[in-house]
Amino acid sequence: MIGRLNHVAIAVPDLAAATATYRDVLGARVSDPHDLPDHGVRVVFVELPNTKIELLHPLGENSPIAGFLDKNAAGGIHHVCYEVDDIRAARDALAAKGARVLGDGEPRTGAHGKPVLFLHPKDFCGTLVELEQV
Length: 134
Ligand code: CO
Fold this sequence. Notes:
Helices cover about 20% and strands about 35% of the residues. By secondary structure, it is of the alpha+beta class. The site of cobalt (II) ion has 7 residues, from strand 1 and strand 6.
């Protein structure tokens, strides 16, 4: 069902420092910061030859990243995103196998303007999983 790894999202307490680490230490191509108010994050995209890394920082008061950083002060992997062809078909197939879809189960528009859903980390090896329809 799942296809390519679209991105790995890393929550960071200091976005400028994290961007500098990826650009200057690891030698990666990094974007300017983008504010995504609907998602409560400011994000920097790190472009790798085969996938992307997203550096996430809280934006606004109800950011989903804030609680994660409270528990992981140095930052850490927040989620992985896998591509699917048909997000509603994927959702229904996963729900039929007992997986929990977060929120109301309806796809939202993600950071790349495509429909996304999130799956409960307890059902997937302790890792929050994002599905993106490509
Ligand atoms: Co993501």
